[in-house]
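Hello,

I think I submitted the 2-acetamido-2-deoxy-beta-D-glucopyranose job twice by accident. Can you confirm which output corresponds to this input? Input:
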Amino acid sequence: ILCPCPTYKQLVSSTLGKEVCYQRIGCFTDDPPWSGVPGRLLTGLPDSPEHMNISFSLYTRETGNNSQVISAINSSTIQKSHFSSRRNTSFIIHGFGSTGRKGWVVEMCLLLLEVENINCIAVDWAQGANGTYISAVNNIRVIGAEVAYFIKTLQKIFRYSPHEIHLIGHSLGAHTAGEAGRRIQGIRRITGLDPAGPYFEGTPPEVRLDPSDADFVDVIHSNHHMCISGLGIYNTTGHLDFYPNGGTVMPGYKTVTSTMVINFVPTDATIIGGCHHSRSHEFYFESILYPTGYLGYPCETYKSFESVNCFPCSQEECPMMGHYADRFPAKLERVNQKYFLNTAADPPFATWRQKVFVKLSGVKKMKGDINLVFHDTEGKTKEYEIASGVLSQDQVYTKYLDVEINPKNTKKIEFLWNKTIFTLLWARLGAETVNIIHGEDGHAKTITNQDKASLLPRCFTRNIV
Ligand SMILES: *[C@@H]1O[C@H](CO)[C@@H](O)[C@H](O)[C@H]1NC(C)=O
Ligand SMILES: *[C@@H]1O[C@H](CO)[C@@H](O)[C@H](O)[C@H]1NC(C)=O
Ligand SMILES: *[C@@H]1O[C@H](CO)[C@@H](O)[C@H](O)[C@H]1NC(C)=O
Ligand SMILES: *[C@@H]1O[C@H](CO)[C@@H](O)[C@H](O)[C@H]1NC(C)=O
Ligand SMILES: *[C@@H]1O[C@H](CO)[C@@H](O)[C@H](O)[C@H]1NC(C)=O
Ligand SMILES: *[C@@H]1O[C@H](CO)[C@@H](O)[C@H](O)[C@H]1NC(C)=O
Ligand SMILES: *[C@@H]1O[C@H](CO)[C@@H](O)[C@H](O)[C@H]1NC(C)=O
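Support: Only one job matched these inputs. Its output is below.
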């Protein structure tokens, strides 16, 4: 209603201290902390809701793929829809340069409906997200306010409790969810999928997603902005913060070259740095299907996770990254709890971390390498190197493996060794023992060579010629 005020263009070209007000959702200033604080030296105010044509599309088990557009402005659209106040509700919020009308947002709703009978609302703000990155950063304040207004409307018409609401946001959508949570007390959960870094890293909590925005806030960092072309926030912003593969460059992508960086436009579309950035919603998607394949290990840094520490987990010590993070008993014990894990390079990305010890027998010393091959019940195999170079008898070779096969579906594990031509004279190499510790509960499995018949025939050799 109140927009006989200056136009957006006039506002951005003027100095700080401006304000814009919109019917229903109130006023927005560019006073600190919204502008002019460290990490956030931007200018401008959000566009109007009408300009952005924000929409809420409802997916339920009744609608399937034929969503219903519902609106808090005309709440009879909600009452006439398949929205049910007896179910939980998830809102999925996209990021910069994206859309809520197709693609991952819709796929996520459809998959969630396969496992839970919920109301899933795909929030679209594509027209507020398709200008410059800075305009989108400003616009999420209005989108967050609109999501909050929608929830207030649900409270009013159904006495619907925020405790039945889960907001899932990617990139700028994660901070949008934070803004909605700041305005509504008692949201059950917010999941931030690689919350955007630029203009949010190091800013006051009101401006960005933080643990006070919901009863439980879980975050997946898949591409922080300290690394080249990174778009995500690096610091913790939730109760549980997961850093898959260290949270920077995801496996399966080539390193970005400097020429690519010059042409780089931040977006959550799958281009350049965007590909790591979008991994976070792919991880979330796959975590719905492979809950145990995304176990996070508590650790101070990725480096110590990679080397020696933080393994294994006694029962219930490690949360599952993604959809089932809320099953972790200690989830609310502290804020800023860091968890690390490695994923595979390709979908479904899930891995099961195991620590392997191999003690060799048979020859004193030889050149070559030792590998383990995991076979699953469907005949798929995955091979991992344990050691290579000069191998000696009686030494124990140790390696952490992020195995792409669930231990539950592992039919057999094969021990392979690769010897060089120079060592052909030595007839035999075998494993005295192979020890495997499972990361998910610390249970150990030992294959010994006491019964030579059971171990050695399964070991075979390949020569490098
Ligand atoms: C705005 O959103 C509505 C659905 O809420 C859609 O039908 C319409 O085409 C959109 N308008 C524009 C200009 O994209
Ligand atoms: C949903 O519908 C869109 C087009 O209307 C289609 O492209 C998409 O494949 C459908 N998705 C599913 C899971 O049926
Ligand atoms: C509100 O939505 C209903 C459909 O649910 C429609 O019939 C009605 O015209 C709408 N009212 C306004 C004021 O847009
Ligand atoms: C809503 O979600 C919570 C947490 O996952 C769950 O405990 C509860 O049973 C759900 N409620 C309904 C009605 O499905
Ligand atoms: C954003 O999308 C709207 C509607 O599709 C279009 O009219 C507008 O030109 C787009 N803006 C930019 C900067 O691409
Ligand atoms: C990261 O977060 C912690 C705790 O919220 C804070 O003390 C620290 O200053 C932050 N670091 C950066 C670089 O923002
Ligand atoms: C054996 O060594 C060759 C050359 O280093 C390598 O290509 C091959 O994958 C190795 N095989 C096994 C089973 O390690």
